[in-house]
Write a structure and sequence with these properties.
three-stranded antiparallel beta sheet; 171 residues; 4 helices; PH-domain like; alpha+beta; 2 domains; 7 strands
């Protein structure tokens, strides 16, 4: 089966959003870097204020700690994706966007990205695959992979690729 399609910034952002939402390691790393130290300091400050019978400052510090531990991390996904989008657009690799042709068979996965990259991979190099409503994501690592949009395929090709992936990639 051979498929040709074009990958744009929105396709890449859907993939990165999916990775962020499904990979707890990335979420934990992002949250730890951004929020852990301020939250720890606020919590320690609140406990020290309580120990010294300073209830008003303690209450304010506890509110700050709750915000840092529970509210900010939930809003960080949007900020992280905005930052990643900006970096992707300004410094994106030539192979990240553009037209590509993929070919699947029982032995290998071949991707041709214009004149830049021609890559042939055995099925065992993929760590996993995921199927969403609009995409196939073939993972080489936890946050690296190939994006194959379903919009480039017929319903029969989607079924054929789903069956091939289920048979070839052990999850």
């Amino acid at each position: 089966m051979k498929i040709s399609y074009d990958i744009g910034i929105e396709d890449v952002m859907v993939f990165l959003s999916h990775v962020y939402d499904t990979d707890p390691g990335i979420r934990k790393q992002v949250r730890r870097v951004r929020f852990a130290w301020p939250a720890i300091l606020l919590t320690i400050g609140a406990m020290l204020s309580m120990a010294m019978d300073m209830w008003y400052p303690s209450a304010i510090l506890w509110i700050g700690a709750v915000v840092m531990w529970f509210i900010f991390p939930r809003s960080y996904r949007r900020q992280w994706l905005k930052q990643v989008r900006k970096q992707t657009v300004t410094t994106g690799a030539k192979t990240m966007f553009g037209e590509r042709t993929v070919e699947f068979d029982d032995e290998k996965f071949t991707i041709d990205m214009s004149d830049i990259v021609h890559e042939t991979l055995r099925w065992d190099v993929f760590s996993k695959f995921e199927i969403t409503d609009n995409y196939f994501f073939l993972y080489l690592a936890s946050s690296q992979g190939h994006i194959i949009p379903k919009r480039a395929m017929t319903a029969a090709e989607v079924d054929e690729l789903t069956q091939l992936l289920n048979n070839k990639i052990k999850q």
